[in-house]
Amino acid sequence: MKILFENADILLRDRDKFSVLEDGYLAVDGERISYIGSEKPQEDFDVIKDMSRRIMMPGLINCHNHSPMVLLRGVGSDLPLQQWLFDTVFPIEDRLTAEEIGAGSRLALLEMIAGGTVSFSDMYFEPETTIEAVAQSGLKANITRPVQSFDPDETPDQSYRMKEALELYNKYNNSFDGRVLIDFCIHAEYTCTERIAKAFIDEVNDRKGNLHIHLSETKKEHDECIAKYGKTPTEWFNDLGGFDSSAFAAHCVWLEEKDMEIFHRKNVSVIHNPTSNMKLASGFAPVQKMLDKGINVALGTDGASSNNNLNMFEEMHMAAVVHNGYDLDATVMNADTVLTMATVNGAKVQRRADCGELKVGNKADIIAVSLDKPHMRPALDKKALLTYSAQDSDVVMTMVDGKILYENGEYKTLDKEKIYYDIDKAVKKLYS
Amino acid sequence: MKILFENADILLRDRDKFSVLEDGYLAVDGERISYIGSEKPQEDFDVIKDMSRRIMMPGLINCHNHSPMVLLRGVGSDLPLQQWLFDTVFPIEDRLTAEEIGAGSRLALLEMIAGGTVSFSDMYFEPETTIEAVAQSGLKANITRPVQSFDPDETPDQSYRMKEALELYNKYNNSFDGRVLIDFCIHAEYTCTERIAKAFIDEVNDRKGNLHIHLSETKKEHDECIAKYGKTPTEWFNDLGGFDSSAFAAHCVWLEEKDMEIFHRKNVSVIHNPTSNMKLASGFAPVQKMLDKGINVALGTDGASSNNNLNMFEEMHMAAVVHNGYDLDATVMNADTVLTMATVNGAKVQRRADCGELKVGNKADIIAVSLDKPHMRPALDKKALLTYSAQDSDVVMTMVDGKILYENGEYKTLDKEKIYYDIDKAVKKLYS
Lengths: 432, 432
Known about the structure:
The structure is a homodimer of 432-residue chains.
Chain A: E1 2-14, E2 17-29, E3 32-37, E4 47-50, E5 54-58, E6 60-65, H1 81-94, H2 98-114, E7 117-122, H3 127-137, E8 140-143, H4 160-172, E9 180-182, E10 184-186, H5 194-206, E11 210-215, H6 219-229, H7 233-239, E12 246-251, H8 257-265, E13 269-272, H9 274-279, H10 287-292, E14 297-299, H11 312-327, H12 335-342, H13 344-349, E15 366-370, H14 382-389, E16 395-400, E17 403-407, E18 410-411, H15 416-431
Parallel strand pairs in A: 1-4, 1-5, 6-7, 7-8, 8-9, 10-11, 11-12, 12-13, 13-14
Antiparallel strand pairs in A: 1-2, 2-3, 5-15, 15-16, 16-17, 17-18
Helix pairs in contact in A: 2-3, 2-15, 11-12, 11-14, 12-14
């Protein structure tokens, strides 16, 4: 299948910034981008699409998600964190089965696809149901089966979570044409014994795996780790070898200078989740400082239960403005920075070398953002428009590996009504 | 014209909170709400509309706007405040004529109507063009002609701005069936001599007018006022009698305890503009503290040049989450608080006693928010959904004074294509 997009504004990478090619042509041949330029390519195409008044840009990459948690959207909002988590979230999660989790993942996929997300990094149990949904949807995902261990007597041999995580990797890593990658996950320092963490990290390193963790999200977590181990969560993971292969850490709100040095030295990526950090009152991650130190920072929504949606445009906007207010400096975290975090930096986190950027030879993971609505006019500065004015509802096309998954409100791979039916059923069971 | 809405979720006021009447009926007779309840009213209606899977709520009130500044959307984003204002905004504003300003206001109206705003408080020059646009659109607005004076020798008799402001009041206050009210405006302490401010305030108080001002937006402004006058901007306005009739002050980021005491004693309202305060790095207004002291706090977007849109759902969301992060307390600024700020409290600011709340006898200023999209499912907590998950694109109907102005993407009173044409023309003239 060869597709030509014409009359498009195309967001291109120009060294470490974005630039806009106006009125350009972009061709897709199979799953890859085959041409970008100002001249119409002289060849035959199966489909030609007019992209007047649309910005074509790399699809967004949501690097920290718990996709099935859309099932808990809005539940316990405005409660203090501990009460929200222990009295509200955990009791509901205890009742979840694979059936509800699958329905949740499929709803999350509908939301992400419509909002311009082309790939996400997920952390939740019963991940096979999520993989099935991802496979069907056409999206990309880096999936994990999180490891936790609260019992100091549990041995690595006894950990069914470790066993499941390794089996998942064997069965699904690099499956569905490479759309599904299996990463590894230790949920957090405070939810895993050192013994299990160490054993699992050894397994991860043997496989040169990619480790997804929560780290220094709250001051409480950070301080209690120091009280318990005499080291920060970063030092704890690093001392266990957790950063020896490849790793990315969600939140990092309370990172100290010495932690950032470790992140930089060990090439550990930070996943910034500003909406969740604001809503749950975790605090302001020192993101500009991390970027200045050369740390790779990407973006994530966190789960919908602490956000309360999976809207990457909202996340870019939040990241772009809240740090200005906190630092009393309007020049931190500009449009280029957050667009880079949501695309290029996310692809690095997911170890997808041929994604995250519109260029010839890369996978065709492309979204089109409409400039039609009043809030996108006048289009004087398109990077600013995408960052500060755009809504995820402005996305009019989502393409992954050259395949259109969503166009003008229509889903091409998922049955929306069936998914809504399943969600209603799951909710009735969970909350009655 | 009698309209019945059936099968609606209706956001009602229950003492000082909102509650949701599920599967209810709401009737509109002429410009007012004539019935709300669980039983279908037994009378004839001209139109019956099914509102299944829609939340009907009071329309949003944007209490601080510079509507024509959509013409500068995105220009100079990410620059430091002074450079943005003096090197970018002011030179463009110097070139503006009534024609461009009118085009800007009309574009702003398209954006506001589609996003569920039913009324706004505006501050800009050439206000007659904005009034014309408001009159045609069917929206409500509290309009001002701002007074400034930089020349210490200027006398009140010489101030053409004062003259225009008073003429505007005589000509348009309470016009277009009360949809247009004329408020008064002193732009700010730092842009007006004490002499002109005092003289204008006397005129405002003679008319029992409503005064719209900028106040303590930046630390620089606040500190320089103290250095100049030995008093805070709040004390300066108060000592001039500025709070003796009725007043509302935008931003109030740097308000001190003693300022809040004055606000409370004099019934001065605060307009919170969180997106602008974050983006321009002004800081965090102590909003929860103001509310705890009993001060009326409403919401505003500020102009689109410092936001960069006029999206009140985004504004509610921002207000609801950023203070949690700043105060490290997830319980401040909850869903009820921000919904109240955007509706009930806004109507108080605008001195519209029969607006801001869905109840029998009130003006029918109503919006319908769809629960259809994936990000609005499941609908477990509708107040949380409206605050944390909803997008302004979920608005499927905007009604003002019983008249539908917008429905399912269609404008009923404004010619969108003509407005877009005028904006393109204005932009070509301004930026070439």
